[in-house]
Design brief:
The structure holds 2 protein chains of 2 kinds.
Chain A lengths: L2 E4 L3 E5 L4 E8 L5 E7 L6 E7 L4 E4 L2 E6 L4 E6 L8 E8 L11 E6 L1
Parallel strand pairs in A: 2-10
Antiparallel strand pairs in A: 1-3, 3-8, 4-5, 4-9, 6-7, 7-8, 9-10
Chain B lengths: L3 E4 L2 E4 L5 E7 L6 E7 L6 E7 L5 E2 L8 E7 L2 E6 L8 E12 L2 E6 L3 E5 L1
Parallel strand pairs in B: 2-11
Antiparallel strand pairs in B: 1-3, 3-8, 4-5, 4-9, 5-6, 7-8, 9-10, 9-11
The chains are: A mainly beta, B mainly beta.
Chain lengths: 111, 118
């Protein structure tokens, strides 16, 4: 069955540094992969979608890579700020199928 | 971007009562909505897929008679937790499917409804 892992349950970094979150999947060949942000007590908010034929995608301070050989996606936040503190979820998806969310990584950016 | 609302945001009820949660797409039509449940410090678990004008599709292990879903219009889906018990206490989140072109899709999520059954 499909399995999605995110590198760590929690990640603490210093303000201004780059945060790197990892999403690995097995028994799955998604056509695209999405990253969401979830704040406590709130629904997830869509951030970025990257397709299987795209190696990298950027949006402001966010960068996502997608390596279908390694079955891995990396999510980077550059010049991190305390306001970036949240749980980040990856969700691989395929055409016509519901996508499954990873367990999430809780990022804390320390001032 | 697309906005999805949920009502109520918080509900406390007695064991044995039924609770209805509404999910609305505010500025777009959603033929497909999803209902998720999330327990503390866990990821979202898909409960069911709600299709406008047809029966919902439930995930394995989710009781369709306990969690009634109605998607009567293109902007409204409801989830009714019937005869709620303390173990049904959770954070319930809905989302609406949005196609982004190239057959990719994303989901816009509601703010969630926290249910506490006493």
């Amino acid at each position: 069955s499909q399995k999605i892992e995110q590198n760590s349950e929690a990640l603490n970094i210093q303000e201004g540094k780059t945060a790197t979150l990892t999403c690995n999947y097995t028994n799955y060949s998604p056509a695209y992969l999405q990253w969401y942000r979830q704040d406590p007590g709130r629904g997830p908010v869509f951030l970025l979608l990257i397709r299987e034929n795209e190696k990298e995608k950027r949006k402001e301070r966010l960068k996502v890579t997608f390596d279908t050989t390694l079955k891995q996606s990396l999510f980077h936040i550059t010049a991190s700020q305390p306001a970036d503190s949240a749980t980040y979820l990856c969700a691989p998806g395929d055409y016509g199928q519901n996508f499954v969310f990873g367990p999430g990584t809780r990022l804390s950016v320390l001032p | 971007g697309a906005v999805v609302s949920q009502h109520p945001s918080w509900v406390i009820c007695k064991s044995g009562t039924s609770v209805k949660i509404e999910c609305r797409s505010l500025d777009f039509q959603a033929t497909t909505m999803f209902w998720y449940r999330q327990f503390p410090k866990q990821s979202l678990m898909l409960m069911a897929t709600s299709n406008e004008g047809s029966k919902a599709t439930y995930e394995q292990g989710v009781e369709k008679d306990k969690f009634l879903i109605n998607h009567a219009s293109l902007t409204l889906s409801t989830l009714t937790v019937t005869s709620a018990h303390p173990e049904d206490s959770s954070f319930y989140i809905c989302s609406a499917r949005v196609l982004m072109g190239g057959s990719q899709e994303t989901q816009y999520f509601g703010p969630g409804t926290r249910l506490l059954v006493l």
